[in-house]
Amino acid sequence: MAAKPSLKIKGKGKGTKASSSSSSSKYELVKEWTNWSLKKAKVATQYGFIPLIIVVGMNSDPKPHLFQLLSPV
Amino acid sequence: MADLFPPLATAQVDAKTKVDEKVDYSNLPCPVPYDEVHREAYMSLKAENFEGFRFDFSKGLNQKFSLSHSVMMGPTEVPSQSPDTTIKIPVAHYEFGANYFDPKLMLVGRVMTDGRLNARLKADLSDKLILKANAQLTGEPHMSHSVFNFDYMGKDYRAQLQLGNNALVGATYIQSVTPRLSLGGEVFWAGVPRKSGLGYAARYETDQMVASAQVASTGNVVMNYVQKISEKVSLATDFVYNYFSRDVVASVGYDYILRQSRIRGKVDSNGVTSALLEERLSMGLNFLLSAEIDHKKKDYKFGFGLTVG
User: Fold this and answer.
1) Which residues contact B189 (CB under 8 A, 6 or more apart)?
2) What is the reported pTM?
3) Nearest CA in chain B to A42
4) Could A53 and B100 be called an inter-chain contact, meaning their C-beta atoms sit closer than 8 Å?
5) C-alpha span between B99 and A49 (Å, rounded)
6) Are A46 and B117 in contact (CB < 8 Å)?
7) Is the dihedral of CA B256, B257, B263, B268 positive or negative?
8) How far is Cα B23 from Cα B21, in angstroms, rounded to an integer?
9) Residues of chain A with pLDDT > 90: what percent?
10) Is the pLDDT of residue B13 over 90?
11) Residue B98 C-alpha, separation from nearest chain A C-alpha, in angstroms
């Protein structure tokens, strides 16, 4: 995950930073999880939205044929 | 011409019926959504002018489901440092789209060859609650945005809650005050440029005209007036003023809806003249001509296109 490596770069300051953030670590974790899930949701939507519309459309009444989907006429 | 001086008898009858038509304040119509307060004015004044060549092919597979293929070739404006010069880069792209229209669910998606997705969703969660979502997703990080709207339609009011990415929260409310007048307000808070705003809108409409105004704490004041001259012709005028940056723009536009064609155009106080002609050549075949001439910036945009299906 892209968010995690950034904490490791802060070499010497890491010790003090860990102690100060332990009280707010739950909030930080929640923020990190929501960021991660939003990123995954964005990728899923970008790849899957048009296929979703096609699947929903091909299953609606009256059911069109696959040939109608691919032919240019 | 005999109508110019109607006999006094009919004038009295007209006045009497007007007094009898008492306003029933418990039965007011539902107002237009807050975003569409200026809808009629923007039909003439904000027509979709384009530059270059455009070809849209729309194929219906059944009543609810259709696919669309769209090719656009032409110069696209790139934001430039100085406001006087416009930089244009010729670009061509193909866009594939799929639409699904159901009484309860509407899905529209458009994807371009460079991976940009434009997605719209409208779902009726219940009789009165509608969820609308709009997203533009790109491959580049931090360049995508999405907005979710929850619309509640009451008897004579509408309320909307808007959530967007980058911590954008907004709410609007519009209420019918009389059968012709509706008033509304909005409040929003944007997280990234940390600012909040407040706005008010008013709309007065009759069968022949619509007048609307909107004031926002961002400094924008918008007032417009649309008059329907006949079934085929309507004229609109618009005045936009920003009291922080002291920008003023006034424009006058027209919209002619004829049997085989529709022509819309406007003239602006910034020296911009534009027009858009949509002509129906035959069933399902439309020809588009667009022109936008900016005399001040010396920017001339002409476009033509064909729409099939």
Assistant:
1) B167, B168, B169, B170, B195, B196, B197
2) 0.79
3) B137
4) yes
5) 11
6) yes
7) positive
8) 6
9) 32
10) no
11) 7
**β pairing state of B261-268 and B272-282:** antiparallel
Contacts of A64 in chain B (CB under 8 A): 61-62, 65
Whole-number mean pLDDT of chain B?
89
State residue A51's pLDDT score: 93
Mutate to test the interface with A, among B55, B56, B58, B67 (most CBs of A within 10 A): B67
Closest-CA distance of chain A to residue B111, Å: 8
ipTM of the complex in this document = 0.80
What does the pLDDT look like over B246-257, one tens digit per residue? 999 999 999 999
Six-digit token string for B251: 């424009």
At B212, the amino acid letter reads: S
Interface probe for A, chosen from B56, B59, B61, B145 (most Cβ of A below 10 Å), is: B61
Q: Which three-class secondary structure state does DSSP give residue B278? A: strand
Instruction: Dump pLDDT digits (tens) for B14-27.
Output: 444 444 467 778 88
pLDDT given at position A21 = 52
